[in-house]
Every structure is written in C-alpha cells, then in structure tokens.
Amino acid sequence: MCYLGIDLGTSGLRALLLSEGGKVIGAAEQSYTSQHPQSGWSEQDPAKWTEALDAAVHELRERFPAFADLKGIGVAGHMHGATLLDETGAVIRPCILWNDTRSHAEARQLDEMRGVRSLSGNIVFPGFTAPKLLWVKRHEPENFARIAKVLLPAAYLNFYLTGDMIADRSDSAGTSWLDVAARDWSKSLLDAGEMRLDQMPRLVDGSQAAGTLSPALARSWGVSADVTVAGGAGDNAAAACGIGALNDGDAFLSLGTSGVLLAARTTCRPDPDSALHTFCHAVPDRWYQMGVMLSATDSLNWLASITGSTAPALTGALGDDLRPPGNTLFLPYLSGERTPHNDADIRGSFLGLGVGTGVTDMTQAVLEGVAFGLRDSLEAFKANGSSLSRLLAIGGGAQSTYWLKLIATALNVTLERPQDGEFGAAMGAARLAVMAHTGAVSEDVLTKPEIAEIIQPVSELKDQHDAAYETFKAAYPMVKAAQRSNKK
Fold first, then answer.
1. Do residues 158 and 232 lie in contact, with contact meaning Cβ atoms separated by under 8 Å?
2. Alpha-carbon 411 to chain mean position
3. Would the CATH topology of 2-237 be identical to that of 245-422+458-488?
4. Inter-residue contact 198 to 212 (CB < 8 Å)
C-alpha cells in the first residue's frame, strides 16, 4: 500500500508518494505561474492546478510501480484563495489568491463589524476569503450572481478528485466565515459577508475520510476504485502534521516564501488584536496560532533576481559565522505585512545605503530584516502569554546556517534543524491520507523528526541584535509616513 500527499503551492505542485510504513518512495513537482493584472492583484487559473496534478501523477506512475497500490490521498493547499463555481461546477473566474490585496477596503469593513473578530478568532485580513467575495459582489456583480459554491484551492482539488465539494476545517478557518472555536460555519459571519450556507462546501476534519477517488480518475491513474481521499489541510496545518506539532509546546519556524512562527494548541485561545492567526488544526480538537510575514525567502529571491545571482550564492558569501548587525536596514514588506501591522499598503525599503554598500551588505540586511520581521511575531506570542524558546526550523531558507544563527540570536531562541527528509506540507498531507484510510490515531502517525543540528543564539552578539531590532521597529512608522506622503 502507498499514500499520496499533494502540496498545492503558489508557484507549483509537489506530489509525494509515501509507503505504508511512512517512508518516502518518491516525489514529482510541476510549476505554474500567477497573473497580476493590476498592482496588488494575484490570480491563478485552477485548470493549472489540475494539469499540474495530472502531470505529477503521470510521472509517479512511470517511475514508481508502487503507485498502482495507492490507497489514500491527502491535499494541502495555499490558504484563503477564492475559487468560484457556478451551478454546473464550472469555474467562473480566476482564483483570487492569498497574496492579493485588492479587497483591503472590504476587509476593513468586515473587521469593524461587531462580533466578527470574536467569532472568527482573527482580524479580517485583505488576503482572507470573505473580503474577496465582497469585492466580487461590488466590482463583478455578474460573476457574483452566478456563484453556487466557493472553494478554497485545496478544496477545489478535492472536488476534482472526488466530484464532491468538501473542505477541511483548518483551511476553512482562514475564510472569516468559520466559527473557529466551534469548528463550523457561522451564519452570523456568512451574513456579515453577504454569503449563504448553501454556498459553502461540506466540512470535515483533515484526517477524516472525505470521499473516494472518482471512477474516471481511478481508471485513468491505473489504481483501484476504493482510494480514500482525506479532508486535507491548509498548508501550514499540513506542515505541522509533517513535523508532528500537535500539542502545547510544539512549535516551528517555517522559512519559505512567507515566514511563519506556528505553535500548536490543545485549546482555542484567539487573540486577534495581536494580529496572530488562530486557526483549527487538521486533526480533531486541536488548534494552532501563528504569526505570519508575507515576504521571507521571497525577499532574498527578489534580491537575487535583481542582482543576477542566486539565493544560495548570496547567503554563501556571508559564510557561516554570524556578523554584528550591518549599517544597512531592510524592511521586508515587498507585499505588505500581516503580523503585527496588518498593513496591505506598506512596501519594502532599504535604509542606510551608501557608496560603499555592496551586494553582500544588502544580503545581510535582507536576512536581518526577515529575522526582525519574525521577531515581531515572537513578540506577539509573548504578549499573548506564550513562551516559544525552542523552534523546529523548516523550509528552504532553513538550509542557510548563517540565517538560522541570525534568527536564533535575533529571537533569542534555540533552533532545531531536522535530518534531511520531507517535513513540509506534502508529507503532512500524505500522513493525513494514512489516517483517513486506516483510522490510525494522530499520535501514531504524526511523529516528530530526528534532529540533525541544534543552533543556539550567539550570546556575544545578542545585545547588538536587540538594539538593531529596536531600530527596525522604529523605522516602520517613518517609512509608512513617507510612503503615504509620496502617494498624495
């Protein structure tokens, strides 16, 4: 038997094949692009997702004979995207993605409505789903009138796989339509967003069997007719499943396109005023909180693109020994920011550039800016009464030893880097498929990885990084005021 975990990302799809014993058999990846028809807009055609999945499955079938004994599938996806379907199940318009900020006015309107924060457990951010639908109603009324169902990206792949409209609770918690404590759709929140309950998919837990692979796909893929499709998860909940973060005290840092500090919770303790997200976990009776910055490795990749370099080459030039903070300051707000500012309009900035500033100085500034942005999230956790002193480090950026030493020092936390392997959303999704097919309990499947390296703060540089962080915090209101002035 084997299980398929699918990670539907913003820039590509990863499909991971897992053995019955939890070992990786193989993986396949397909890339695609987003469209940005206007500034602040970000959209994708859902057909790209299904095409990428079909291509990845074809590759897995060709390379790994074990695929023929597929028993379960789990899908993890980027959260908040609005995929609009008409009564025939056809897509009405391109999906509006999580990093689309056009609905900032609608988000503000919803966020100011009585009871919305307390029920949803969160600030209504422009990237969330509910404000997107209000924007569609106001600006594309002909499309809004056709909506029969709204599906998140992972739920759309579930629909493609099963023919049923199913969503998991962890993903749905990022819509501003879900009562996060009750783990169910809220009529009050739907009314506030001018939506109806019949336009929502059926809710399941991520580890629950949600459906069966459609007969047509089963024949096309050359597998049996009884393949279980799990409820799946939002990408960060799936990543938590991939590294076994289930209980209070389990926390990780994800250094990917966005930067995330996530802590698992056995109780629901929302704190929306801090701009921390409080969402349902992918397993029953669990929640998680996270601080999110929108441009983590995205900031480094941007610098690499404009300098004609690569991210590994830029970080490699710094070596492995942590340096004192540089004289150049970088604010990593290339796409706005969530925690703690909830600011869709702010943009990135370099401060302190001089004639002697080189690419290495700018690289150091970018890494420091991201580290300080992550510290903003840590400070929000502290204000919430949470102490995060030990974090598992995952994501592409965690391959840089220099960056991890910097983050450990700037946050004054111990970082644990796992042994080489799969610990991302695809692994978590495959584990959810195992649970859905076998009925196994989470403690037996969602295990923690072996640790390869422990990275401690560089104590002799801690005070200097604390001072640099204070400078970083003070720069935000000044840059915000300057950018507001420039728009006038």
1. yes
2. 21
3. yes
4. no
pLDDT at 303: 97
Both structure tokens of 453: 């390296």
Angle in degrees, CA 49, 52, 54, rounded to 5: 110
| Cis omega (within 30 of 0) for bond into 340 | yes
Distance CA 171, CA 174 (A): 6
Pick the catalytic residue from 111, 171, 179, 235: 235
Active site residue 235: yes
Characterize the bridge pairing of strands 209-212 and 233-234: unpaired
| Helices of type H across 225-310 | 235-242, 297-307
Q: Where are the alpha helices (DSSP H) in 13-162?
A: 46-63, 104-111, 116-120, 129-139, 141-144, 153-162
Q: What does the pLDDT read at residue 488?
A: 60
**Distance between CA atoms of 206 and 284, rounded to whole angstroms?**
8
Look at the pTM and tell me if it is higher than 0.85: yes
Listed by start position, the domains of the chain span 2-237, 245-422+458-488
Cβ neighbors of 191 (< 8 A, separation 6 or more) are none
Q: Indicate if the alpha-carbon torsion angle 453, 459, 460, 464 is positive or negative.
A: positive
pLDDT along the chain (488 residues), means of 10: 96 94 94 92 97 98 97 97 98 95 94 96 94 98 98 98 97 97 97 98 97 97 96 95 93 91 93 90 96 93 96 95 96 90 89 96 98 96 88 92 97 92 87 97 92 96 98 94 78
First to last CA, the chain: 62
φ, ψ of residue 25 to 5 degrees: the values are -90, -45
- CATH, domain 2-237, list 3.40.640.10, 3.40.50.720, 3.90.770.10, 3.30.420.40: 3.30.420.40
Name the CATH superfamily for 245-422+458-488.
ATPase, nucleotide binding domain (3.30.420.40)
Is the four-CA dihedral 399, 405, 410, 412 of positive or negative sign?
positive
